[in-house]
Specification:
Bound molecules: S-adenosylmethionine
Largest sheet: 7 strands, mixed
CATH superfamily: Vaccinia Virus protein VP39
Distance between the termini: 41 Å
Order of helices and strands: HHEEHEHEHEEHEEE
Low-confidence stretches: none
CATH architecture: 3-Layer(aba) Sandwich
Strand content: 25-35%
Radius of gyration: 16 Å
Shape: globular
Length: 211
């Protein structure tokens, strides 16, 4: 998977490639899906959600430019897979999932596999984690109508936020870099397709933009 789907498609960061080699994706997919764990595709998990395609996980982590001493927030923990990969590079990882059933299963899985530097919380990740902010990097694994303001504000100066933005089915992966206390630079990393980011600074449950 790492040689064919990641390195050949342009993932260059050795730390990301090593982390993707180390984390056993078959332990994060749903029971019965293990034989597809290394396919170049997202796979269904509980609560109608997905574990993201390996290439997208690697591309987002590479774009976030995570360093070994970093504190990182992941919004949309799902199975816990991306958080586990990030944990092989960063110092501390905080991951939030809005579905309790997924969050509890991910926490148990991460603990069972010994990823002790990941803390999993249940809640609305569009609001970030004010009690743990600021973060060196924030990755959002679901797509919202715009970049959540709370997440921008919880970035350290120099930190990066990687987030899919746009309508369902036609999102752009954006990288926001905090360049100063109140200033940000924005880069478009290309088209992606993610499940919706549902929350106070994302979509409402009925698919409308939250107030
Ligand atoms: N990173 C995950 C993995 O490695 O398995 C895949 C994530 S899946 C594509 C996106 C996840 O974002 C879903 O589990 C969904 O429930 C979650 N999500 C959507 N909106 C959220 C929010 N406001 N806060 C936290 N999680 C959210």
């Amino acid at each position: 998977m790492v040689d064919v789907q990641l390195a050949r498609r342009g993932i260059r960061d050795e730390a990301v490639l090593a982390a993707m080699r180390e984390v056993p994706r078959e332990r994060f997919v749903s029971e019965g899906m293990e034989e597809f764990a290394y396919d170049d595709a997202p796979l269904p998990i509980d609560a109608g959600q997905t574990i993201s395609q390996p290439y997208i996980v690697a591309a987002m982590i590479e774009a976030a430019e995570i360093e070994p001493g970093d504190r990182v927030l992941e919004v949309g923990a799902g199975s816990g897979y991306a958080a586990a990969v990030i944990s092989r590079i960063a110092k501390d990882v905080f991951a939030i999932e809005r579905h309790e059933v997924l969050g509890h299963a991910a926490r148990k899985r991460l603990e069972g596999l010994g990823y002790c530097n990941v803390e999993l919380r249940i809640g609305d990740g569009t609001l970030g984690l004010p009690d743990e902010a600021p973060f060196d990097a924030i990755l959002v694994s679901a797509g919202g109508p715009e970049v959540p303001r709370a997440l921008k504000e919880q970035l350290k100066v120099g930190g990066g936020l990687v987030v899919p933005v746009g309508d369902a089915g036609e999102q752009s992966l954006c990288k926001i870099t905090r360049t100063g206390t109140g200033s940000y630079a924005e880069e478009d990393l290309g088209a992606v397709r993610f499940v919706p980011l549902i929350g106070a600074q994302g979509w409402a449950e009925d698919g409308r933009r939250s107030a």
